Structure formats: C-alpha cells, structure tokens
Amino acid sequence: MTTPNSIAVERADDRNRYEIMVDGKLAGFAEYRDHTEQRVFFHTEIDDAFAGQGLAADLVQEALTDVRATGKRIVPICSYVAGFLLKHEEFGDLTDPVTPEVKAWLRTQLS
Fold it and tell me: 79-87 and 55-70 helices cross at what angle (nearest 10)?
C-alpha cells in the first residue's frame, strides 16, 4: 500500500456533498441535504481503490468540523456518520436525532 501525497476535503455545495480528494483524485464523498438549520447526512462512500486507508473517518471528521463552523446541526441518517458520532462525542452537542419527519422530508428531497 502506498501513502498518498495529499489529502483534501472540500464542500461541494452544488452537489450537496463533501468530497475527499487523494492526490487530486476523487476518493469518496459524504452526501447531505440542508433542512433549515440542520445538515442531514444520508450517504457516505469511499471508492474501492482507496479502501482501508481511513479516508471515510477523515472525510466525516472534516465534514462535521465544517458543520460546526457554519452553525448548523447534524442529523446522521447515514449509518457511517451515526457510528462515527458514537465514537466522537465532541460532536454530540451538534447532533439532532433522526426522526420519522426528517426521514420523510429527505425522501421527498431525493425523489
């Protein structure tokens, strides 16, 4: 396994996601939709070519740090983000519960 030269996480508002780049190549993303003051995370994916390098954790860490900076709150519908939050209590003050109402709203956004 080679060590990547550069890793960058960027918010791509036009695609409603955070993207992680490795040496300038898209390695993965965490998708969201904004619902009033909440950023609802619903899907995180890392390309198989970049698996096993801890990039999903790096991606979510940076994304949640950005959410804090924007003053929004986190709704972790994505199972990876939910699991990350269980291990990283420093984001607990920003986290709202996943409710049936938020799930129904997200379904309308994605349809």
Answer: 80
Q: Are 1 and 37 in contact (CB under 8 A)?
A: no
* Per-residue pLDDT tens digits for 12-52: 999 999 999 999 999 999 999 999 999 999 999 999 999 99
pLDDT digits (tens, 9 = 90+) for 1-16: 455 469 999 999 999 9
- Amino acid symbol at 3: T
Rounded to whole angstroms, the Cα distance separating 26 from 20 reads 6
Give the CATH architecture of domain 7-110: 3-Layer(aba) Sandwich (3.40)
Domain ranges for the chain, please list them.
7-110
